[in-house]
Amino acid sequence: MDYRDRDYKDYNAVYDAFSEISAGLETEAMRITDTHEHLRPDDFYQDIDLEKVLKNSYVDWCGVELKGSDRAARAQFLEKVRVNSYFRWLLRSLQQLYGFEGELTADNWDEISARIRAAHADPGWKFKVLTEKCRIGRAILDAYWDPGNDNGHPEIFSPTFRINMFLFGYSRKAVDHNGNSPFRLAERYGFGISDFESYLAFIDFAIRKAREGGAVALKSALAYDRGLHFDYVARDRAAKVFEMDDTSISPCDEKAFGDYIFHFICEKAAEYGLPLQCHTGLGKIWGSNPMNLVPVIERHPETRFVLFHGGYPWFHECGGLAHNYKNVYLDLVWLPLISPSAARMALSEWLEVAQTIDRISWGGDTWTVEECFGAVIAAKHVIAQALADKVVDGYFDLEIAIDVAKRILRVNAEELYRLA
Q1: Considering just the CA atoms, what is the radius of gyration of the chain in Å?
Q2: Strand 157-162 versus strand 217-220 pairing type
Q3: With a threshold of 0.70, does the pTM exceed it?
Q4: Which residues contact 238 (CB under 8 A, 6 or more apart)?
Q5: HSE toward the beta carbon, residue 216, CA cutoff 13 A
Q6: How far is Cα 98 from Cα 108, in angstroms, rounded to an integer?
Q7: In this structure, are residues 97 and 370 in contact, taking their beta carbons and an 8 Å threshold?
């Protein structure tokens, strides 16, 4: 079928292309390499029900409290969140996993909750969802509660090692937004830290240990802790802050210390061949624009910076960075859940401006297998839509579109993180 002969406004043609691309993503051989998840350890699922699924999903980020377990409270909660994108994709997942049609309501709440509990009575259910429903062959796990952990399942999870805590080494009392401390980690390893030089040596040691333990990347979620502008700071300045008394350290001192450490970590990422996954957008939104990273990207040309979430709402900026810098990679992770409309526009633009096709990948960024499946559904929907638009517009043909989709969902991540 030659879609180039169709008018772009022929929505039947778009639908036909969308259907064929979607079918191409559901073949038996198609396995996903998921670049980013926070899927919880096995014991999390022991007492799971619908309320726990919702509480541990992005629906909870809507800020709507479920005020009780009675019908009225549930109806009020659902009425407020029902059109939010996070809820819509989770709903699609629950419908397919637990066998119901239509909306989640106060009337069917208990029945769906019972089905969730019954399914998870089988400890293997969560892996069945991941491997058979999501069709994930491998996922990169960001266990921020225990950085570098693979949840005891190396057969499916490869860790990324979160580095936030190291920027808080200016004080033994300071912790990152997840409560992690580099000094507690050093104690766990029996590594003594007595001065700034030994602190830097510990960071190097911790990164090497993470890599030896299977970590395939480093992860910065610093946009939840601070802004993403990192000045280049002299080593002596950071060392001075390290030696200061806690009561003497100012916010400027804290930033200077963190700036130096981030540049140091960028050097280590290049040295050990680990891509540096960077949360961009949202978070502390006043400082999370990915353009803040330009000085770092330029100073560390051998470090591969993977910009997460399309920098939402700054996905145009992400495209511009990938256009200009060969060490910038783009990841749709989380974006289809945030806004499928924005994700579709972002992908369409990135295909046009990224230097090469191997620079775009996808991850789910979820805590439960239920939401992970919703993220997969959203990603396939968005990718198929964006590519169908290109096919109908005559930008490329259907064969290329299906190949591009497979690259985004598997091949590019395998190559970038050396998972093949």
Answers
A1: 22
A2: parallel
A3: yes
A4: 196, 256, 257, 259, 260, 261
A5: 23
A6: 12
A7: yes
The one-letter amino acid code at 163 reads I
Note whether 335 and 309 are within 8 A (CB). Answer: yes
Domains of the chain: 125-416 (3.20.20.140)
Residue type, 205: F
Contact 340, 92 (CB under 8 A): no
Biggest CA pair distance of the chain: 72
Q: In what order do the strands lie in the sheet with 305-308?
A: 32-37, 136-141, 157-162, 217-220, 276-279, 305-308, 328-331, 360-361
pLDDT digits (tens, 9 = 90+) for 188-222: 999 999 999 999 999 999 999 999 999 999 999 99
Answer whether 350's CB lies under 8 Å from 402's CB.
no
Interval 70-113: pLDDT, tens: 999 999 999 999 999 999 999 999 999 999 999 999 999 999 99
